[in-house]
Amino acid sequence: MSQSSSSPASVVGDPDRLAAIEAALDAATRLGDRCPPHLGEAIRYALLAPGKRLRPQLVLMATEACGGDPSAAMPAAVAVEMIHAYSLVHDDLPAMDDDDLRRGRPTCHKQFDEATAILAGDALQPLAFETLAAGIQPPELAGRCCLELARAAGPRELVGGQADDLAAEHQSPGLEQLQRIHERKTGALFRVSLRLGALVAGATDDQLDALDRYAWNLGLAFQVTDDLLDVAGEEAAVGKRLGKDSRQGKITYPALLGVEASRAKAAELIAGAVAAVSILGERGGPLVALAEFVGRRNT
Ligand code: GRG
Are 294 and 218 in contact (CB under 8 A)? Predict the structure, then answer.
């Protein structure tokens, strides 16, 4: 497990934007009396834990980059973070990665219990779509956003990537298969975050294409750097395990390519992300800064 899942996140991004995201996440999970208190507490524990909020920031940055009003896209920012938070809660369960720590705190099933964590993850999924359907205007745009998020979070993307990742623990996948896993586990949520933000701004096809290319590069770069963070300090392990690292037999870029080539790959992907958004001009500056953060991140 990388530090991204085991220690509190360092802040990246504009403090005002981050504060607005936190406030919106908080407001979206004040669920009232009909939600059992224990479940509500677990939902808030999972969602409000100190993460980097990369995906909601991508939503708002894409809106801004395409000339829209970021506040109109806030329901989409909340929705993608809800899907992300659910995926982390379920990924940490004993049946999956079986982790004890997430975002520097006990995982949801350790803090509460397994059934409550499963239900909190279950609840975050419809809440994401409720947030989009109720908050994005006009309703046709809300429907389009729901469709795009459902596809990205579904069996062909996020859940499919997770299923293949679990299956790969018993195989020896190559680079291409590893890339396909991460395109779906990480890239799909990055991509849909950017697309939802762009759609709210009424983006052109050229702008959407540029953001798709940015997302593809950023998603893979993020995973390569995540893998590099995992092997930092494990110098004895890399290269001696026939392509598998110490993370429960999971395949990683450094294990397949070596550390230096992985660093070069990450730098190449970050450059690709930055180049992709050059057509957005100055308004794409925050996206460039976020890509550069991913390239040098230590959390
Ligand atoms: C259970 C359907 C299902 C999917 C799980 C997201 C995921 C798929 C698994 C989490 C484990 C993992 C290594 C995923 C790759 C993406 C990743 C590194 C997520 C962590 O994202 P950050 O660093 O987390 O943005 P924070 O906590 O900062 O939000």
Answer: yes
Q: Is the CB of 102 under 6 A from ligand 1?
A: no
Give the position, in ligand 1's atom list, of the atom nearest the Cα of 153: 2
Q: What is the spatial distance between Cα 80 and Cα 63, in angstroms, rounded to a whole number?
A: 14
Which protein residue's CA is at the shortest distance from atom 10 of ligand 1?
88
CB of 227 closer than 6 angstroms to any ligand 1 atom: no
DSSP characters over 77-131 = HHHHHHHHHHHHHHHTSTTTT--SEETTEE-HHHHS-HHHHHHHHHHHHHHHHHH
The conformation of residue 105, written as its DSSP 8-state character, comes to: E
Cα 187 to chain centroid distance, Å, stands at: 8
Atom of ligand 1 nearest to the CA of 103: 27
C-alpha of residue 85 to centroid of ligand 1, in Å: 8
Which pLDDT tens digit goes with each residue over 200-244? Answer: 999 999 999 999 999 999 999 999 999 999 877 565 444 444 344
pLDDT digits (tens, 9 = 90+) for 47-68: 999 999 999 999 999 999 999 9
Which CATH superfamily hosts domain 8-296? Farnesyl Diphosphate Synthase (1.10.600.10)
User: 116 in ligand 1 pocket by Cβ < 6 Å?
Assistant: no
